[in-house]
């Protein structure tokens, strides 16, 4: 039962955004910029964004060498270049908008570890640099000389440097988005789970965290920004969830001989140093079927694999004590490019970020705001 005041003021909006991650907040902000007098509401089922926006590893990346090479088996050269460019420009756009200090951004470079099976990738560095020249105007990839100084296991035969990547603090990124959302007069309601969207009527049916109370919101436009959790609201999207595990060590009691962001195994494994700790994650390719899940659980097979990499490959012979672990859930599909389109007379969606929400979330939200304004 709602009061007269609640019914009068809190259930009707020009735009309702479902999902408060990077894309949802960006969509709301860009729409409000286009329509300053519009009333905008964001609905989020959790206290924090549910998917991966505040649960990712903080890599400001656009693709490792082996990942890009692997993409050529599934995409045309034009599509691969466009994908890399979208990601790179996306990183630059948030750096320009918010500033490196506010984002906790460090241009520490990206690196990739190659074992015996992946050595052939190094032979294609010149070709890939040539293909990407139109974007970067300079060589992207190069081989690290004297890799032995980095202290990795002898199974690592080469280390490849990417001079255009860096790292940031996802929490700081979220905070600056929150600040801008508040400054624009956009409302955020948390603890509200959307159960149905009537895309042609502009109706959002939701319930509270306990499922005891049902809400019916109405809007001129609805933005679906639920990424991995999209299928329930838009079954035709064919978006597949992909869970990712991250482990964080206790403060290390030894000096780390490297800095930067590191990838292994076609980008599936990633690690970096943060606050004197090792952050290590990924490896969902070890059990893709098991990680195609919407449950925030720890896969013991993947956890064991990552811990083994830490003590055998990254810091061989060292003991690592782990302090915490968590999972985030990303969204994938039959294409690596994001899915941005109208899905009804009064609704549009921006989903399927492919694990690149940090790089492209801001720009994808901007593009969705354009679709909603048409």
Explain what this protein looks like in three dimensions:
Strands 1, 2, 8, 9, 10, 11, 17 and 18 form an eight-stranded mixed sheet that branches. Helix 2 runs parallel beside helix 7 and helix 4 packs across helix 10 (357-373). The protein is 30% helix and 28% strand. The chain is built from ten helices and 18 strands. It has three domains: 4-54 and 172-238 and 335-373, 3-Layer(bba) Sandwich (FAD/NAD(P)-binding domain); 59-150 and 158-168, no CATH class; 241-332, no CATH class. It has helices at 4-9, 22-34, 65-71, 77-98, 100-103, 125-136, 170-183, 288-291, 300-314, 357-373, and strands at 12-18, 40-44, 59-60, 110-114, 141-143, 158-162, 166-167, 187-190, 192-198, 203-208, 214-224, 240-249, 261-264, 269-274, 277-282, 322-332, 339-344, 347-351. The model has no long low-confidence stretch (mean pLDDT 96). A hairpin with a 4-residue loop joins strand 9 and strand 10. The two termini are 36 Å apart. The chain is of the alpha/beta class.
Quick structural gist:
This protein is an alpha/beta fold.
Give short descriptive properties of this protein:
eight-stranded mixed β-sheet, alpha/beta, single chain, 3 domains, FAD/NAD(P)-binding domain, 374 residues, 30% helix
Write the layout of secondary structure elements.
Blueprint: H1 4-9, E1 12-18, H2 22-34, E2 40-44, E3 59-60, H3 65-71, H4 77-98, H5 100-103, E4 110-114, H6 125-136, E5 141-143, E6 158-162, E7 166-167, H7 170-183, E8 187-190, E9 192-198, E10 203-208, E11 214-224, E12 240-249, E13 261-264, E14 269-274, E15 277-282, H8 288-291, H9 300-314, E16 322-332, E17 339-344, E18 347-351, H10 357-373
Parallel strand pairs: 1-2, 1-11, 2-8, 4-13, 11-18
Antiparallel strand pairs: 3-7, 4-6, 5-6, 9-10, 10-11, 12-15, 12-16, 13-14, 14-15, 17-18
Helix pairs in contact: 2-7, 2-10, 4-10
């Amino acid at each position: 039962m709602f009061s007269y005041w609640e019914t009068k003021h809190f259930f009707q909006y020009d735009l309702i955004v479902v999902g408060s991650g990077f894309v949802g907040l960006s969509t709301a902000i860009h729409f409000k910029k286009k329509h300053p007098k519009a009333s905008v509401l964001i609905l989020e089922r959790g206290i924090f964004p549910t998917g991966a926006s505040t649960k990712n590893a903080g890599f400001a990346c656009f693709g490792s060498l082996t990942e890009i090479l692997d993409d050529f088996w599934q995409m045309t050269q034009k599509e691969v270049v466009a994908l890399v460019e979208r990601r790179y420009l996306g990183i630059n756009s948030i750096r320009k908008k918010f500033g490196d200090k506010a984002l906790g951004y460090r241009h520490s470079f990206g690196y990739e570890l190659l074992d015996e099976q992946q050595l052939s990738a190094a032979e294609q560095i010149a070709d890939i640099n040539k293909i990407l020249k139109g974007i970067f105007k300079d060589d992207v990839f190069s081989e690290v000389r004297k890799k032995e100084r980095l202290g990795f296991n002898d199974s690592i035969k080469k280390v490849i440097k990417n001079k255009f990547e860096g790292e940031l603090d996802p929490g700081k990124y979220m905070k600056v988005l929150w600040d801008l959302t508040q400054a624009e007069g956009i409302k955020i309601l948390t603890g509200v789970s959307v159960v149905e969207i009537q895309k042609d009527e502009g109706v959002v049916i939701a319930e509270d965290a306990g499922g005891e109370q049902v809400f019916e919101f109405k809007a001129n436009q609805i933005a679906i920004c639920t990424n991995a959790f999209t299928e329930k609201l838009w079954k035709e999207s064919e978006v597949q969830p992909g869970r990712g595990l991250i482990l964080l060590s206790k403060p290390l009691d030894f000096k780390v001989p490297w800095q930067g962001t590191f990838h292994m195994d076609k980008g599936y494994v990633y690690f970096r140093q943060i606050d004197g700790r090792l952050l290590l994650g990924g490896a969902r390719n070890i059990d893709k079927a098991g990680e195609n899940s919407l449950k925030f659980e720890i896969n013991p097979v993947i956890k064991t694999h990552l811990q083994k990499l830490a003590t055998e490959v990254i810091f061989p012979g060292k003991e690592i004590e782990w302090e915490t672990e968590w999972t985030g859930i990303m969204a994938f599909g039959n294409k690596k490019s994001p899915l941005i389109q109208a899905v009804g007379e009064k609704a549009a969606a921006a989903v399927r970020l492919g694990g690149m929400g940090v790089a492209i979330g801001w720009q994808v939200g901007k593009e969705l705001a354009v679709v909603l304004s048409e």
